[in-house]
């Protein structure tokens, strides 16, 4: 997905006349970050969907469940994966149907549920992740170690 709707420096300068705090270079830099992020996510997500028939959202759910082997409440899983509780409910019900996730009653709160990665889900994830991480490593291999550290530092600075 190639975004071609970047404003020109001149257009941004016109807006800055109305609102002097607008910095044209900052706007262009952020739009480029957004464009790069969308392209990278689309490319990586397309491979995962094509090769393993799993969405990026379901992959995130599996990864979080893998990181929480004792199980996790659906509300916490929703927060960690950035989706609504309703979406997690539908998504994990389908994943349980497919044998990837186990849904159990919470022993501490009988009204609550605990979600766990099933053995099948763990094996499936172990099949996906090595190649997924290899694709990411190859993409990031375009940058040397210092550049990778700088990207991490700068993105953390922008998001904190």
UniProtKB/TrEMBL annotation:
<dbReference type="InterPro" id="IPR023187">
    <property type="entry name" value="Tscrpt_reg_MarR-type_CS"/>
</dbReference>
<dbReference type="InterPro" id="IPR036388">
    <property type="entry name" value="WH-like_DNA-bd_sf"/>
</dbReference>
<dbReference type="InterPro" id="IPR036390">
    <property type="entry name" value="WH_DNA-bd_sf"/>
</dbReference>
<dbReference type="InterPro" id="IPR000835">
    <property type="entry name" value="HTH_MarR-typ"/>
</dbReference>
<keyword id="KW-0805">Transcription regulation</keyword>
<dbReference type="Pfam" id="PF12802">
    <property type="entry name" value="MarR_2"/>
</dbReference>
<keyword id="KW-0238">DNA-binding</keyword>
<protein>
    <submittedName>
        <fullName>MarR family transcriptional regulator</fullName>
    </submittedName>
</protein>
<feature type="domain" description="HTH marR-type">
    <location>
        <begin position="26"/>
        <end position="160"/>
    </location>
</feature>
<keyword id="KW-0804">Transcription</keyword>
